[in-house]
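Late entry, written up from scratch paper. The run itself happened at the end of the previous shift, but nothing got recorded in the book at the time, so transcribing now.
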Amino acid sequence: MTTFSLRGNLVDVPARRIVPAQINIVDGRIVDIVELKGGVDGYLLPGFVDAHVHVESSMLLPSEFARLAVTHGTVATVSDPHEIANVLGATGVEFMIANGKQVPFKFFFGVPSCVPATVFETAGARITADQVGTLLDREDVWYLSEVMDFPGVLTGADEVMKKIAHARRLGKPIDGHAPGLRCKDAARYAAAGISTDHECVTLDEALDKLACGMHIQIREGSAAKNFDALHPLLSSHPDRVMFCTDDKHPDGLVAGHINDLCARAVAAGHDLFNVLRAACTNTVAHYQLPVGQLRVGDPADFIVVDDLVGFRVKRTYINGALLAENGETLIESVSTKRLNNFHCDPRRPLDFRTPTKGASAW
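Output as recorded:
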């Protein structure tokens, strides 16, 4: 039996209060929280969760992504393995799940709904509606990933609707991807059972989708950056927004993750507890993830930060295990067999010969 205790200023997000406390952990779970009269340093927070990310964009295996993410206080991700599925199909999805299980980080993978992304795309693989159903039947597959084919939803395309039906049959969330979709079309898209969108680039578009019952993921990644346009939602719809990065390149992940969005949101004047709902709790509630929220009985997934302004992470715990301290990861690299779907014959000099006709124009 592993037992330890930790003291700090506990940030109780649901109760919207901060109280000096000691948390007692036994075998990876919080068994007791004792309020104190003071005399403690640092702040205890639920760990950060990225609500939508393609791990492949970091150019890292999930196990290596985890080693970096924990240094910034991230304890879990809702991950869409679309990119590797586009190359390797269902085998790629299974590879990502298996590799993620080799480290003590909480990856929650979905099934890509659009592989290839469009009929015009040349991809290395295809995932059919039947394959989507088989993968969704797995307990370690949590949701149907972003439904990019929103025209297919609006027209009731058979293959698209079969994939959505599999998720609805199992009661698993369905993620959206509908850039620019507004008004009645947005309402029809949401009515199919699609509950999130991370593609909003304007506040008006986000408000349209919120009015349709959708949840908005405020995206700030290495490519698309929508925080400046959408952060007012933290105050107007604090129960319906989440933070995500979508695509995070390796240099960006080294610099920061969801912790940076918390610092920016607080600097913009948003209420601390609304910010932490987007960073820590709304995603867990929406996807019903087994990620601790600093409550008695929860897995001991939490972080220690210096302050509630810069959110510099001192320590990260997952299931009671210390996995990062003062910017250094404590997760060890793992050996993994790489998959490959790139095949070509050796090139010869003659292959690069380009015949010309007539005199050179140069």
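The radius of gyration is 22 Å.
(Scratch paper discarded after transcription.)
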